[in-house]
Amino acid sequence: QVRLVESGGGLVQPGESLRLSCPVSGTFFSINAMGWYRQAPGKQRELVAEFTSGGSTNYADSVKGRFTISKNNARNTVYLQMNSLRPEDTAVYYCNAKIWDSWGPDRDYWGQGTQVTVSS
Q1: Residues of the chain with pLDDT > 70: what percent?
Q2: Residue 1 pLDDT more than 90?
Q3: pLDDT tens by residue, 72-105
Q4: What angle do CA 11, 14, 16 make, to 5 degrees?
Q5: Which residues pair with 68 in a beta bridge?
Q6: Dihedrals phi, psi of 41, to nearest 5 degrees
């Protein structure tokens, strides 16, 4: 069973930083892609940043220059460094991984989410 567990969320003031982490555990053949999404109250879940299966990165326009996605392949962990946080970044942040396991070559897995609140 593949499991993703986010950590690192919290309450910060505007302009401050947070670093989210998401290790992937369980039994699988490979991780094809990993990324971070967020969902604010009353809004749809949206892509924040991702590593594609081709190895490139994509960022939402609203976070470019402020957020950085990184990963440690040896630890099967993806990170999201969030700087210069704004109140509009407030949301539940979810980790996503597209994984090749015994159930299929490109299955979607999600973490349970971690709350990020930016408020003065």
Answers
A1: 100
A2: no
A3: 999 999 999 999 999 999 999 999 999 999 989 8
A4: 75
A5: 81
A6: -55, 130
SS (H, E, C) the chain: CCEECCECCEEECCCCCEEEEEEEECCCCEEEEEEEEEECCCCCCEEEEEECCCCCEEECHHHCCCEEEEEEHHHCEEEEEECCCCHHHCEEEEEEEEEEECCEEEEEEECCCEEEEECC
Can you tell me which residue has the tokens 């942040």? 93
Residues 28/44, Cβ–Cβ less than 8 Å: no
User: Token pair for residue 56?
Assistant: 């490139």
- What confidence score (pLDDT) does residue 55 get? 84
- pLDDT for res 87: 97
Distance CA 100, CA 27 (A): 10
What contacts 39, CB < 8 A, 6 or more positions away? 45, 46, 91, 92, 94, 113
Residue found under tokens 């950085």 = 68
The two tokens of residue 24 are 């992937």
Q: Which residue's structure tokens are 């999201």? A: 80
